[in-house]
């Protein structure tokens, strides 16, 4: 009779993540706060499977931290949030 043994090795799956920190400088804290308030709902709705995004305020700066599993998603997220921040700024400063 023949027997067969298989050795199962320990496999570790390492997930890479890509992270960007972006600062948007504005003329005043009021403008920065308005941009943050306009973008906050979109950041909260980001599906957890697509990554993580945070927005905060420091004086007259809006700070974004975006983290995704792949570089293409990071690039797309950065472009989206920068465009939204720009559109918000233009609406606020009309």
Q: How are strands sequenced across the largest beta sheet?
A: 1-3-2
Number of domains: 1
| Relative helix content | 40-55%
H/E topology pattern: EHEEH
User: Shape, please?
Assistant: elongated
What's the CATH architecture name?
A: 2-Layer Sandwich
Kindly state the number of beta strands: 3
Low-confidence stretches: none
CATH fold-level topology: TATA-Binding Protein
Which structural class do the helices and strands define? alpha+beta
Supply the CATH class: Alpha Beta
Mean pLDDT: 84
* Major sheet description: 3 strands, antiparallel
Q: By CATH's scheme, which homologous superfamily applies?
A: Alpha-D-phosphohexomutase, C-terminal domain
Q: What value does the Rg take, in angstroms?
A: 21 Å
The percent range for strand residues is 15-25%
Count of DSSP helices? 2
| First-last Cα distance | 86 Å
How does this structure look, described?
With 94 residues, the protein is an alpha+beta fold. It has a single domain (18-92), classed as Alpha-D-phosphohexomutase, C-terminal domain (TATA-Binding Protein, 2-Layer Sandwich). It has helices at residues 29-44, 71-92, and strands at 18-25, 52-58, 61-68. The chain has a three-stranded antiparallel beta sheet with strand order 1-3-2, with helices on one face. The chain is elongated.
């Amino acid at each position: 009779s023949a027997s067969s043994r298989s050795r199962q090795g320990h496999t570790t799956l390492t997930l890479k993540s890509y992270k960007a920190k972006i600062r948007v400088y504005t003329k005043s804290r009021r403008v920065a706060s308005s941009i943050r308030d306009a973008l906050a709902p979109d950041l909260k709705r980001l599906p957890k499977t697509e990554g993580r995004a945070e927005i905060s305020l420091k004086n007259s700066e809006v700070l974004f931290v975006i983290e995704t599993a792949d570089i293409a998603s990071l690039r797309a997220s950065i472009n989206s949030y920068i465009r939204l921040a720009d559109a918000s700024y233009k609406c606020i400063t009309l």
